[in-house]
Amino acid sequence: MKVNQFLRVFTLIVVTIVIICSFPLVNWANEMPLIERWSPSSFGQGDQIGSINWITSQKVLESMKLVKLGKVATLGKVYQSDAPAFGERTWKLIIPGLPSGGPLGDNDIVYNEEYVLTELGQIGTQFDGLGHIGVQTSQGNYFYNGHFLEDFGTPYGLNKLGVEKIGEYGYVTRGILLDIAGYRGVERLPIPQEGNPNDPGIITIADIEGAIKKQKIAPIQQGDVVIFHTGHGNYWGKDWDSLSEEQKAKNRRLFNAGEPGPGITACRYLSQQKVAMVGSDTWGTEAVPGEDPNRPFDCHIEWMVKHGITNIENLDVIRLLEDKVYEFLFVFTPLKIKGGTGSPGNPVAIY
Q1: Taking the model in full, what pTM does it have?
Q2: SS3 assignment, position 338
Q3: Average pLDDT of 166-192?
Q4: Angular region, 324: left φ>0, alpha ψ -120 to 50, beta rest
Q5: Which residues of 213-246 are buried (b: 16+ CB within 10 A; e: fewer)?
Q6: Hey, CA dihedral for 184, 75, 325, 168, is it positive or negative?
Q7: pLDDT in tens, 148-158
Q8: Strand partners, 154
């Protein structure tokens, strides 16, 4: 091949590669938020709090009528360093000095305080705010209501969709517990196997409706908080501190190997009911893997990005199950962490 001819071919190859590489987002991005026009949301273009808008004053008053016995069950797990955690997330608490300060004054007062190193809003019992999940599109990283991360994200917090926005309101509404494990007659739903849409670890619309009928509660209503019991949370049970280190390590592996939960069809159904929040006794609420293993955490996108529906994970529902309580007043407010993506917390069920 002549030199000039070689140079022309070489130049053509280089130009082709440059053209291909200059459009990675167009080739690989998910354009559905743009094509289907997920924004503005039902609550207007400027909205930053999503589905908590469904909790009206009337909804609060109606929900308070669910309190019959004056009993309280807390739904939060204990935050501790050896508890199961997703991925490489960690919780480390240090008390710097014993005591940390003092003595002071004539009364010799001393005090302790803690230093905590953690992904504060995304470990243990965790509330997923609307700044937690987005979708990469050709126009940028798309978050709830058409907010692009490139416009509001900083290394020191989010300038929009921060969890403090929802923290200004809080959830006081009807909560319902769907005991899917009990409905199926099993102690624990299995972890779904990849690529099987009919897997018993995937919760369906029929499961939701069947559990509601069996539990003899009213159907899901606008503004409700819907919580799933799958039994998977038993790996992180109430007797956690009594387990050996070997058993804890085994349980952590099993807990994080995947999880049962609603599949995308059931998640879309919940969106249609206009629920205020979804939660579960698992670390991600939805089935992992779901119907399509190539679309991980599709329900997170369906709920948070598309509809502004928040999610709360790793709930302890043992007390409710023991008392056979499936309908209650649910009370929770995330911490007002300015620019945060989520929040720790200890929700309360009152019945």
Answers
A1: 0.90
A2: coil
A3: 98
A4: left
A5: eebebeebbebbbbbbbbbbbbbbeeebeeeeee
A6: negative
A7: 999 999 999 99
A8: 157
